[in-house]
Specification:
Elements lengths: L2 E9 L3 H12 L5 E3 L15 E4 L6 H17 L1 E2 L2 E2 L1 E2 L3 E5 L3 H10 L5 E3 L1 H7 L9 E4 L3 E4 H14 L3 E3 L4 E6 L4 E5 L4 E9 L5 H4 L9 E5 L2 E3 L9 E5 L9 E6 L3 E6 L4 E2 L12 H11 L9 E2 L2 E5 L6 E5 L2 E5 L9 H13 L15
Parallel strand pairs: 1-2, 1-14, 2-11, 7-17, 14-24
Antiparallel strand pairs: 3-10, 4-5, 6-10, 7-9, 8-9, 12-13, 13-14, 15-20, 15-22, 16-19, 16-21, 17-18, 18-19, 23-24
Helix pairs in contact: 1-5, 1-8, 2-8
């Protein structure tokens, strides 16, 4: 069994790994991506046609990352005749300080406006509002599955590699390089390794002093519209006494409107995921009450994994020659190009640091 060599290896071929490899390729590198599953698999958190491009943040480190991500999505240009960002806009309402978010977005030059309930209902007749809402036209969805295909295409065009169905069994930082043992017993030697393996982060990087990462199975659902109402992407900060968590969603052409509770699923072993829907009754009740433009009885559930830190913060840091990106679930996909650029910085410059809230605890 032989040993390959590469300057930079990315372990994990979901959106974060592919975005990182694309960014490395843009900088003249030829990264090798190793992904345990086959192309197009549904075992992680990156599959599906759409992900929310939600810009309703008020924390500076996330807004910095959002701006960088926005630049990255624009740099990818049109794919299949259209941008990878579909900017149909985002409306945020409920128990959240929308004026604070409005101020933070305005300070960045990101368009947003506060609307009355009557104005919101006039614009989006399929939704119900009981208070003011924040509207941003510079938001919407990322064409998720198309983005994965385009990242891979660009990596290969730049001379990099994406090796599907290639599990990594162990990662050993030897100081002068990193040895990766593959599932078949062969080895790959790398100068630096970027690890973006989602639900498998702790099992592969158990010695890296990661924060606690909880893996859950989440099951949002697509609902069928009952008329031709216009649909934005949306966040609804609901009363926790009535519903289990914040609601998010977006239109997915050909599938309906995706609606889900944020981070409410059962904790699971990612290698034995039951693919069992949870909270569907509560989700249908929510749709019945707040989304008259959808058929509450039409739910088609979707299964994906979340891998979350306790406070929901991302992990973007470097230990020795290993760079780690983890804890993105629930709000990571939109940031993928910014995360990829940050992880590429860390991989190519051992003095680079991500924003303080994203760093590993000191050892």
């Amino acid at each position: 069994m032989g040993t390959d060599a590469a300057a930079v290896v990315v372990v994990g071929g979901g959106v974060m790994g592919l975005a990182t490899a694309w960014e490395l390729a843009r900088r003249g590198k030829r990264p090798v991506v190793l992904e345990r599953f086959a192309r197009g698999h549904h075992e992680g958190a990156s599959h599906g046609a759409t992900r929310n491009f939600n810009n309703a943040y008020d924390e500076e480190h996330y807004l910095d990352l959002l701006v960088r991500a926005r630049e990255g999505w624009v740099a990818l240009g049109d794919v299949g005749g259209a941008p990878l960002l579909r900017l149909h806009g985002l409306v945020t309402h409920g128990d959240v300080d929308i004026r604070r978010i409005h101020e933070r977005l305005s300070a960045r030059g990101i368009p947003s406006e506060v609307l009355s309930p009557d104005e919101s209902r006039r614009r989006w007749s399929g939704m119900r509002f009981d208070g003011d809402a924040l509207w941003s036209s510079d938001a919407g969805v990322v064409r998720a599955s198309d983005a994965l295909i385009e990242f891979e295409r660009r990596i290969l065009a730049a001379g990099g590699e994406v090796r599907w169905s290639t599990p990594v069994a162990a990662i050993d930082d030897r100081g002068d390089g990193v040895d990766l043992t593959l599932g078949d017993g062969s080895h790959v030697h790398a100068g630096t390794v970027v690890v973006t393996v989602g639900a498998w982060s702790r099992s592969l990087l158990g010695g890296l002093a990661l924060p606690r990462l909880t893996v859950t199975e989440e099951t949002p659902a697509h609902f069928a519209p009952v008329d031709d109402a216009v649909w934005p992407s949306f966040n609804h900060y609901v009363d926790p006494a009535e519903y289990p968590a914040t609601v998010y969603g977006m239109p997915t052409p050909g599938e309906g409107v995706k609606v889900g509770f944020h981070r409410v699923g059962d904790e699971v072993d990612p290698d034995a995921r039951p693919h069992r829907p949870t909270h569907l009754d509560a989700l249908a009740t929510y749709v019945r009450e707040w989304m008259p433009g959808l058929d509450a009885a039409s739910a088609v559930p979707i299964s994906c994994t979340y891998t979350s830190t306790d406070d929901g913060a991302f992990v973007l840091d470097r230990r020795g020659r290993i760079v780690v990106g983890a804890g993105f679930s629930g709000h990571g996909f939109k940031f993928a190009t910014g995360i990829g650029a940050t992880l590429a910085d860390l991989a190519l410059d051992d003095s680079s640091r991500a924003a303080a809230p994203f760093r590993l605890p000191p050892v």
